[in-house]
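Step 1: inspect the first sequence and its tokens.
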Amino acid sequence: GLVTLAFGIFAAYVVALPWVGFRIATLAFLVALPTALETPRGLRGWVIVAIVALLGTAGTYYVFEHYLHVLLPRGRWTDF
């Protein structure tokens, strides 16, 4: 069940990329996947998920855009 759920979340991420852009889709993916696999307990758990998602998105964006010079998808709806 969890494997199917993880594939579904990943498929939604791939579909969302061209519409909302890399930053928003990745942030949502990095919140949705760990939350679906194991729901955070209490405020501390949610803060950890939020921090990991923000740092993961920002770090990946910075490395690919600024260091490797790889253009990441901008959203058609957001241009972000």
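Step 2: inspect the second sequence and its tokens, then contrast the two.
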Amino acid sequence: DTVGFIRDLPEDLMGAFAATLEELQDADLLLHVIDATSPRMEDQIKTVEQVLEKLDLTAKPVVLVLNKTDLLDPEAASTLEKRTGGVAVSAIHPPTLLPLIERVEAAIWPGGATRPT
């Protein structure tokens, strides 16, 4: 649970851990993967957002990926997508990855620009 690790990290070690995340500065897009079944999901999302803010990464586009939605009722997964603006996926149901791929493509190539070949 990386989020738990980050949240509980002593402040004096946060700088050292942040140095590990400096490569995020070079990213065109960040995928924020969250366990959609976690009872602490909302807190985990906020924790990651706070870390991104501390790292001055709030201008980077972020796609929230709601993982493990196969463990949720389909209606609950849909409601969660609408509420969070995320994309519901399940690694054991590959067809759920298509909306994620489409969201990533839209974020990387906005306006329907043709992707490089």
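Step 3: confirm your contrast with the notes below.
The longest helix spans residues 41-54. The two ends are 37 Å apart (CA to CA).
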